[in-house]
Every structure is written in C-alpha cells, then in structure tokens.
C-alpha cells in the first residue's frame, strides 16, 4: 500500500496518522474533547514539518524520506536498537515501581516487557543463521536477512 | 608510520605523504584528540611541510595507532581517485548511489563500505577491490 505514496511522504504521513490516532482516542475517552482538535492540528503540523525536513541533505532526512543508503540504514538501525533498549529499561523500571506501589497497575509494564522479549526472540529466529547443516557437508544453509536491508 | 620515520627526516615529502599525515590528523580530530583550531593549524603545517621532519612535527604527539583500526591508506586512496577525476564528493555519491555524507565518511575513515559498495567503488574507478582496499600501505604508495 505504501508504494503508492511518495517515499518522502511515507514516514511523515505515518507519524501524522499515529498522532491523529492519539487525537481520536482522546476525543473518545476524555470529556475535554476540545484538546483532541489541538492534537490533530499538531499532527498535521508535524507531518508538514517532517516532510520539509525530509528534503534536507542530512542523514536524518534521508532516513525520514526513506532514501537511506547502507550507512544511513545502519545508523537508523543502531538508533532504533538504542531506543528499544531504553524503552525496555523504562518498562522494567515502571514494573518494579508499580509492583512496589500499586500492584494492580503493573500489568501494562509486564505486558510491554513480554512483548519486547517475544519480539527479541522473533528477531533472533528471523535474522539468525538458522539450523546448521550436518558436519562436513557443504550446505547453502538458510539465507539470512539483515534488518538493515528491509 | 611513514611520516614519523626519523631516519629520513631530511628527505623531501610527496603529496601522498602529506595526505597520509592529514589522514592521521583527521582521525585524531574526529576522536576529539585535537581541537578544531589546533587541527586546522596542524593541517596547514602538514600541507606546508617539505621534509619528513617537518611532517613529523605536524603529527607530533598523536598516537600512530589512530589509523591502525582503519584500513591504512584506503580513505586517502578513495579521495585520491576522486580528486584525480576532478569529481566532487556529491558527484561520486550520485554515481555510486549513496549519500554525500557516506562518501565523506568513507574518505575520512569513519565508515567501512560493505562488500557490494566496495566493489562498486573499485569498479567505478576502474580498479580491483584488492587495489582499492588492500590495507597494504606500500601498495597504495606505489600507485
């Protein structure tokens, strides 16, 4: 579906849609629904700002515009790995604190950790080398796919 | 390090020697071992040097191992091939299908290209990967 959208617009649009989702949720769940309009306006502004930024000649812009080369993809991958690690640490900290303070509120943090752990195992099985062939036998083995190339 | 060989301090340097010394300075600069002002001053000193002794003075106090963790001469070779063809970094990047920042990173030794990109660079310059990326400095100097 995304191939119909210009590469430069894809990620800014996704970011905008994500923001609009928050605005919609706010409008449904909060009595102060007027704030949802503000969030929606921010979402549109963010999409325009990201689209503009994506046209610049920097590594970040290349990533944002989905035109990153191999080094830039590697940079993006490392940044995502760092973000994932920090998010995991934050979820663990939240879990420990809520367990100590109010155990009933701990489940979202536990769920985050469980999902992250599952995703990590999925990554290992997807990007790993797979089953080794019999010893001494020349085998093509499994084709590995780098997440950087996806 | 060729440039620090004191046995030939009075001998005159070549462009390749000066480029190599500047690579050492760049490596030191990107690792925050040199402030910008000192880096610029030392680059100027290296460019103006006529003998190995003068060149050694420009890189004085910088550990030789700074370039040991990157293929010696490889960044200089890419830059040399590009400048010989009077190409800008942007033009080379366009020809290789990568970003200008990636060419800059390769030329400064901060990024090692993947095998496909190394082949593409070598082919573009009409060389083999061995010629282009062999970490043997003597071969580089002979070219």
Commentary on this structure:
The complex is a heterodimer of chains A (150) and B (143). With 150 residues, chain A is mostly helical. Chain A has 5 helices and no strands. The longest helix of chain A has 32 residues, at 70-101. The mean pLDDT of chain A is 87. Chain B has 143 residues and is an all-alpha fold. Chain B folds into 2 domains: 2-67; 74-138, lambda repressor-like DNA-binding domains (434 Repressor (Amino-terminal Domain)). In chain B, 59% of the residues lie in helices and 0% in strands. The longest helix of chain B is centred in the first third of the chain and has 16 residues, at 15-30. Chain B starts with 14 loop residues before the first helix and ends with a helix. In chain B, 34% of the residues are buried. Classes of the chains: A mainly alpha (150), B mainly alpha (143). Chains A and B meet through α4 of A and α6 of B.
List the main descriptive attributes of the protein structure presented here.
heterodimer, A: 150 residues, mainly alpha, 5 helices, 68% helix, 0% strand, flat, B: 143 residues, 434 Repressor (Amino-terminal Domain), 9 helices, disordered N terminus
